[in-house]
């Protein structure tokens, strides 16, 4: 199948920008599927827990989309990804930002901006979408950040993913340093050299206008001055569903060791 | 209003207590410690042979506790020092993680090239650097555990010291790998994010005075070097991969056009006076055609013809894409609108200029990128 061919269209997905029940569409094409397979079969990423061992093992064996088996596997996996995506859009742990790139610093200022969406899925994986039009997104990739992948407890993975995103893009500010919700016009990446994705040619890229849709879902507190981040987002029911996980009392550690020379000197004096 | 402000201040102070260093847990590491402490697998250390998973849990605890030390976070009732069995288990797990991290570092350049998107590429770099930072944090907690065990005359103290030495050696070897030029250049792309500065701002003494190489300006220097190289030598690095030859060809069609003439050339004198370029919409429903004259004239305007493919009809008929009327269409940043008859006109000299100057030379209709098509619609 050719890379531009569409595998599935997910229509009627909730638009997290709207409180009036508007919907958006996500297009999943063959190129995205081919790329995502590398992540879905990566043993460092806990996809088996979401997709099931059997499906992932079939993928690892290698299946062609043109075959009946390949098509069946893809349909099953895409159904699960769609459910995760729908839940993410409904809950609204979504970030949008504008990106552009150019072959020279000078050309960068004239280059057009394009919108990217980042979705934190309830599994703790991150999905990246390219916005094609106001109501249509195109799936680019999905993967687990390492910080989320190593967390054993599924319900803590998405918070680990949220933390990595916030620590990376939101600056500490103020005399009493706090992470505060960035202003809309804020520049994330002023200009940096990168390699062109499909060309191995160096390019320079810029990112701006980062927006945490539904900031409270990310752990920001809109009720407080400056909308600071608190490190622990509200519980997400869809991420908490694993039945065997029960609340547990924290295990005490050994009392903190504190090397206090002054204290020892005081004792000597006595 | 005043009451609201006071409530805000009270809430902030209650939620994020300040410590003696005047710092708070603004980056959420205390929550990470609480998550790590709540892991039931840590109970296995009460027995004789904790599992590998339990050792991983101990490693996560060591990392989380270490961040509290690096950032001077007061963990209150959750604070403590790692007992020897947990510390040794953590080291064993961290050694395994270093082994895996070495592989990640070794393959970083190729995985970076293979990333689907700038965000994913950046995440690959962040994954590496976050793990290296985790190791620094873990060393702080494990060093403390080791000193505590020695002072307490813990029977496992000596073995813990030896384990810690092995871990340090493995970290030094890992650093040799990370400090390779190509890896450092890739990691330097993170300097434009807030990650490094956020870490730096949160460090307390003595850690703030002994910055490791990823926080001491090395990566910023690498980023500067990269920018300088980019601005001075970028054309020499251009390599065309097979999969982009098609899109490159479109750009080259415009780049290689001769200077426009003042009057139209005799079309009959050219055996093939036009180059036909075609693009297909991502959903495969539309096709765009553009005839580019091989000998342009000054002020020439070219027309895109957009059609909607009728796959359901037996003859595969196509209709003017009038439903796209009013939608913006751009090539290399030259923008116009699609007319009611599905056509769109652009100045040829603007396209030629864009082909020479613009980084992106993709056809966009609305916000969607259309791919070059070598096929005819029927």
What is the secondary structure topology, with strand pairs?
The complex is a heterodimer of chains A (270) and B (378).
Chain A (H helix, E strand, L loop, with lengths): L5 E9 L8 E7 H11 L7 H4 L1 H9 L6 H24 L2 E9 L2 H6 L3 E7 L5 E8 L2 E8 L2 H4 L4 H16 L2 E2 L4 E2 L7 E9 L6 E12 L1 H4 L42 H9 L1
Parallel strand pairs in A: 2-6
Antiparallel strand pairs in A: 1-2, 3-4, 3-10, 4-5, 5-6, 7-8, 9-10
Chain B lengths: L1 H14 L13 H9 L14 H19 L13 H23 L1 H7 L3 H34 L5 H22 L2 H7 L7 H8 L15 H16 L11 H11 L18 E7 L5 E8 L7 E9 L8 E3 L7 E4 L2 E4 L5 E5 H10 L5 E3 L2 E5 L6
Antiparallel strand pairs in B: 1-2, 1-9, 2-3, 3-4, 3-7, 5-6, 5-8, 8-9
Q: State Rg of chain A.
A: 22 Å
Envelope shape of chain A: globular
Instruction: List low-confidence stretches of chain A.
Output: 261-270
Overall number of strands of chain A: 10
Helical residue percent band of chain B: 40-55%
Classification by helices and strands of chain B: alpha+beta
**What does the average pLDDT of chain B come to?**
83
Report the largest inter-chain contact.
Answer: A-B, 99 and 105 residues
Task: Describe what you observe in this structure.
The complex is a heterodimer of chains A (270) and B (378). In chain A, 32% of the residues lie in helices and 27% in strands. Chain A has 270 residues and is α+β, with helices and mostly antiparallel strands. Chain A is globular and about 60 Å long. The C terminus of chain A is likely disordered. Chain B has 378 residues and is α+β, with helices and mostly antiparallel strands. Chain B is built from 12 helices and 9 strands. In chain B, strands 1, 2, 3, 4, 5, 6, 7, 8 and 9 form a 9-stranded antiparallel beta sheet that branches. In chain B, β2 and β3 form a beta hairpin. The N and C termini of chain B lie far apart (69 Å). At the A-B interface, α1, β3, α5, β4 and β5 of A face α1, α2, α3, α5 and α6 of B.
Pick out its properties.
heterodimer, A: 270 residues, alpha+beta, 27% strand, globular, B: 378 residues, 9-stranded antiparallel β-sheet, elongated
